[in-house]
Amino acid sequence: MRTDIVLFGIQWSGKWTQANLLIKALKDYQYFEPGNILRALKSNDNVLWAHVRIAMDEGKMVDDEIIFGMFDIYQHLLKPGECMLVDGFMRSLPQMHYFLYQEYMHKRNLVGIHFDLSKEQAVERLTERGKKEWRSDDNEKAIEKRIFVYETETIPVIDHLNKMGKLIRIDANQPVQKIFEDTIQALKNLDMLE
User: Fold this and answer.
1) C-alpha span between 188 and 28 (Å, rounded)
2) How many domains are contained in the chain?
3) What does the pLDDT look like over 29-63, one tens digit per residue?
4) Is 68 exposed, middle or buried (0-12, 13-18, 19+ CB in 10 A)?
5) Does 194 reside within a domain?
6) pTM for the model
7) Were 161 and a residue from 26, 65, 112, 181 both cysteine, which residue would form a disulfide, CB within 3.0 to 4.6 Å?
8) Dihedral over alpha carbons 146, 149, 150, 153 (to 10 degrees)
């Protein structure tokens, strides 16, 4: 049974960077990142983006039904034998239950990778990113809300997966290449890579 990978970490822990490295290194994995898909909706004035923008600009999670619908389409498009590399989904216990049910129904397995970074380190990274680029959801109120949501909604998911024995912890306070090497080694230790 192939194993799907779900990435976790506080905002600015490097999930997106690691996902891009992993997708190049992993054979037969397809990337699912709902945040980028949702931000792409803003290219047109449409009712879905109008609804999503409010939640994202305020640092809130987008309605589960929207995320579930996107995930269902993504899962439908997977070819036989392909696995999922997921970033930005399973951010709450209801999302976790939905995901685990889908895994069970499709006879799939998963491992979570938690890129562990302190809140203080994350804010320091955001400050650096703000000097280079800016997103509309990088305002102070939204940042505080996203961190609060992570701590109250996502940490329980991470804890649950840890109790299930389905979580790898990676120190995200190190250079990008070292984080990637540690991640690859952890996957090798699980016999997911040669």
Assistant:
1) 16
2) 1
3) 999 999 888 888 777 788 888 888 888 777 788 89
4) middle
5) no
6) 0.90
7) 112
8) -160
